[in-house]
Amino acid sequence: MNRQVPNIDLTDVYDESFTGELEVYRRFVTVFINQIFIRHFEKTGLIQKHSFQELTNLDFHSSLTAFHFTRKILEYYLDKGDLQIKEDGYLNIVRPIEDDDPEDRDLDDFLAKHPEKRNFFGILRKIRDVAKEVLFEGQDALLTLANDNFRQAMQLWEDLMLNARVKRPCHQLVIRAMQDKARQGKPLTIFEGGAGVGSILRDGLKQPEFTNVLEKIERYHFTDVSLSLIKMGRESLRAQLSPEVFDKFNFKVANLDKLFLNGSSFTRKDSLDMIILEHVLYDVIDLDATLKLFHQILKPGGYLVFTMAFRSEPKSFFPFEYLQSTFQSYNKARLEEGYRNNVGYLTLKEWENSLKRAGFEDFEVHPAGEDQVQWPYGGILALPSK
User: Fold this and answer.
1) 269, 373: one domain
2) pLDDT, tens digit (0-9, with 9 covering 90-100), for 35-55
3) Which of 183, 184, 198, 296 is the most buried (most CB within 10 A)?
């Protein structure tokens, strides 16, 4: 018999303060997008020399990342009404696309007043600065930054994962789902995919009530595709957890696209109490296969909790996938009509269809569908129907 979804309360998270954080983010990222368009589409003559059909043809581009980043930028301006496709198939700039902060003075003034946001907006600015490499050389933005200065890039990434206020609902959904599961009183075996630097656990450890979760952990499989990130997360957790709790952690490199039933200690049938995926599930190649595997390895009543931004119209949404769109990992998904129409983030309807097909009939969504344009960041907690 299925346990009813717990109805996690996040009303204290989706508030005026969070709305303000999103507006600041949107304001500066919109400037970055405009700057990329002006520098690499308009001033280079790209949109004058090539038709929309050419620019949105995969063969025109040096990589999938370049193709999707270009396509999404153009769709963003088309949806806003700043661009239109002429009868000859070329693009026309209907409304001038302005650079409202050409020397980053507004941004620098803002960061001088809010130094805690310096690293967060620093990496967003650096993405703008390597846009040429992404668009025309087919490079991954984060890898490009890492090649220039690996230590600095990793530090910026760690800060982004830990301290980006726009992701607070995502972290709180997972943390509160863990607390709810711990209150059921049974030992917990947890698998976290794409755990990275351990941002969920490190955020949870700031809350005294998270102790109840730690006490219930029997085994925690902390996995990521990147050994470098795992090492960062492991060393931070080693410093914060008691030896008794730390010994219950299994740190392991794991690729979500290569998991299969009984292939490892954490993919045995009905073996997991909880699966956590913080901003990573949308990256998998075959979403249906991955969800069906999760259905198999979760115990009855187990929790699948994953976070993301919910896709909406390009004019509202593209600023919230600006960063991810420059990563190769974000652009590899296998598309399927009705279940996955875009690489990267999915719409709520696509998630609903995908979950139900994989055997997750019971789930809760945060925020509610009608609020996802205003508050795109959130997640889903789902229970397997078995």
Assistant:
1) yes
2) 999 999 999 999 999 999 999
3) 198
